[in-house]
Amino acid sequence: MTTSGVRTAPQVRHVRHARRYRWIALAVAVLLLVLSNVMSNRVLPGWAYVPWNFGMAVLLLLVAKWGGAGPVAVGLGIRHWHRPVGVGLLLAAGTALIFALGMILPGTRDAFLDSRAADAGVGLMLYQVLVRIPLGTVVLEEVAFRGVLPALFGASPAIRWRWGPVLGASFLFGLWHILPSIGIATGNQAVADALGGSQVWATVLAVVSMTVAGVLMCALTRLGKGVKTTMLLHWATNSLGFVAAWLILH
Questions:
Q1: Which residues contact 35 (CB under 8 A, 6 or more apart)?
Q2: Is 154 helix (H, G, I), strand (E, B) or coil?
């Protein structure tokens, strides 16, 4: 800045250059996520789910860094872990309590029934809870939709709250669940009863609910001031939900 508060020509060019790189990085990140979604849901064998998704998370972080958003900018600063981890553990404990009550109460017990847990033995259940869900699902989704995408849209909620980046990343999070939602209308008895087995309504519900959930998760990222907060909550929600279904069905 000059003494009069006006940017010089080189500074203006630098800002435009950085902004151009950021938008290119955003486009690359979205394309990589589209590719990843199709590959993990339709092409790759089951054993490749974890290494593929974990590798994609690392690749997205590299793309974000190339676009000007390093680890701190996406909410993954190594030095800043006490608050996000502490808040995340509290949210995970609250989730466990809610799920425990839901399993006990007859009126909500059926909501946990999921045919995907019916045929799982102890080993497969532990693999799902301790490996597939945290390393294959949680790391990629939280890095992508609470860290990289909002940062490339303009600001990660862990650093600064801006509605544009939050809504943009959250809507893409909703679209991300289109392919995984196929089959949920028959796989989950509570969903099937509510939607009459309609796949169209199941997909619409998945997109809308996951978009709203994306906004909420961004808000929790802001509360914890880090993506580690939502990583822990996401793991607790998905893993404990699978454990609840497994316990009920066994």
A1: none
A2: coil
